[in-house]
Design goal:
453 residues; Immunoglobulin-like; six-stranded mixed sheet; alpha/beta; 23 strands
Length: 453
Amino acid sequence: MGITYSNKELSTDSISCGGSFKIKLSLTAEPDIADNPTDIVLILDRSGSMRGSPLASLKAGAKTFIDIIDEATDSSQDGQIGGGSHIGIVSFATTAAQDTQLITSVADLKAAVDSLTANGNTNHRDAFEKALALFDPQSTNAKVMVMFTDGNTTAGGDPEPVAAAAKAQGVTIYVIGLVGSDGIDIQALNSWASSPPSSYVAITPDEEELEKLFEDLAQNISKPGATDIVLRDTVSPCFRITSVSAPTKGTATLVDQSTVEWKIASLGVSGSEGAELEFDVQHLGQCSGDIEVNADLDYSDAEGNSTDFPSPVINVDCGTVITPEECPEPVDIEIDGCDDFIEYDAGDVELSSQGRILLLDATLRGVCPNRRVALAAIVTEVDDQGVEHKRGVKTMTIPAHTSASCRDVLVRCIKFVLPEDETAAVSLCTERHFRARFIAHYIDSDYECCPIL
């Protein structure tokens, strides 16, 4: 079946400036359905919350899935599931129904899907029971359930024991979740699915993505597992990778501080198989707000499988950002499109430095609201003998913030001009070494002298 699932998820959705989090990569692969006959049961939610466009998107996704399996089993969409494989349809609301048995007729399968109407509660337990009853215990076919749901269990009791019994009998369970109007219990979906859950559970808040989720799951079924897998994940320049854990399968190496490479010799060649890789990432402190974690993610294998990893976003809170020194004002220059050259008087420019410019950032931790801070930055240069030479000191007032509680304040771009002189270097290309020291304290205080009685 090739790569049937790929995922990238974060351990948290928000961190503070300079904070760390984990990234988990997951892959699932299955044997080729053409050479490994498989019985698949689509378990489809038709509860009341599916009324309207969600049900329409579900039907489109399920029928796309059936078409892909049709072609994968006998190399053509001839209206029959071939190669000894079968598909069955179970739908559920307050109770579940076996809308078809395990059959090969594409027309009958699509007719069953098209006949679904939305009404009632959500009984996952009965859905799993009806789906499990479709499988022939004597059959040597691989057994797969694809559960789709958009809500929490509201009827019929706990479905987890039935899902566990199905897995114990060798059934592979995929779960597709749509975050409906009443939310969805992700922990429950993880408990129903095969292990590891990150390889067998897909969640979307967007009903328009349902057809693609079903398509992605079925798309790679025509390919036999995956071999010689190479996955390279590069994070945004706002982050760096600090450590890589051993994956559940294969090997992983840190290429540089922003790229990890994961290699797997084979996955899902003889049976359904999942693999996970976790690595730690730290924020570098220059970006804030909602940041896309991915810079690039490249996947390849010997079979030419395709993957579709999500691009997660994390919120980085760097507190209040202060830039005490403004950059020089630019001079605007315009040139007409047909002019070959222009001579322009930019006005008076003062010679402010001959040498290098050092920009320093400093984060003031836990600054309480409504209090200004006095900040001093001191820079020295260290020569080859370890002797420090004074290069400058700056003092500045950091404005008070008005947040409800104490928070970090990032002070950016404290500028020092570092001239070339007899105590430094004789060339702009010479390596130089500096030290920076900071002193900060509150200016404002609620202190008052004791009154004289």
